[in-house]
Automatic annotation (TrEMBL):
The keyword Lyase applies. Residues 212-235 are annotated as: Disordered. It comes from the Bacteria. Belongs to the peptidase C56 family. HSP31-like subfamily. Residues 212-221 have a biased composition (Polar residues). InterPro entries: Class_I_gatase-like (IPR029062), DJ-1/PfpI (IPR002818), Prot/Nucl_acid_deglycase (IPR050325). This is Type 1 glutamine amidotransferase domain-containing protein. The keyword Glycosyltransferase does not apply. Keywords: Glutamine amidotransferase, Lyase, Stress response. Residues 30-229 form the DJ-1/PfpI domain.
Amino acid sequence: MAEILMIVSGADALRLADGTSHPTGYWAEEVAVSHKVLTEAGHRVRIATPGGVRPTVDPLSLDERGGVAEGDAKEFGAYLDSIEAELASPLDLAAVTLDGYDALYIPGGHAPMADLASDPGLGRLLDEADRRGLTVAALCHGPAALLSATRADGSFTFAGRALTSFSDEEEQQGGLGDANPYSVESRLRDRGGIVTTGPAWASKVVVDGNLVTGQNPQSSRDTARSVLSALDGRR
């Protein structure tokens, strides 16, 4: 059994390009499906947030306004209810060490752009995890969290690595568009990441050594399965 740390944003709002506040949170499918795939494979998942705050689910991720079918929303909501105790009492990210963990897993929603992308403690954790060769996975807007990671010389930990994220095309079609404070795809590329994206709203996963990234909510299951494969390869 592997130990997996799922790092979930604690933000419930994102400051937009015009300075206004937009309600947000984690994306239900990305937490629910990922958690289910990983735990049903026999692994233990611990949830951590900045400050140990209870994370907020983005209401649009459980609503047809967010492109989520009613049946899917009920399924995701029911699963989140089943792990209510874990969501209600997450670990404090600042107090977490990597001892005993085999993988880090960061789901999205726009919320990681608000806190995880600039969290220095998370950045140190990610850099250490990468140097140790632990599996590091991020999904949709979750790769924004990778931006927090720098080497001792100030360079981006994941420069030169192949990865993907929620695409600019998807952001324009069904995200926040030009209201977004920044483009995750573009910023990762500017920092030196080798970013490739697939067709909008189709599952795409990129694996580069110990780094696993998924493009969008539709990639949730395949991203978690790729983590399972990575963990099997470490045994």
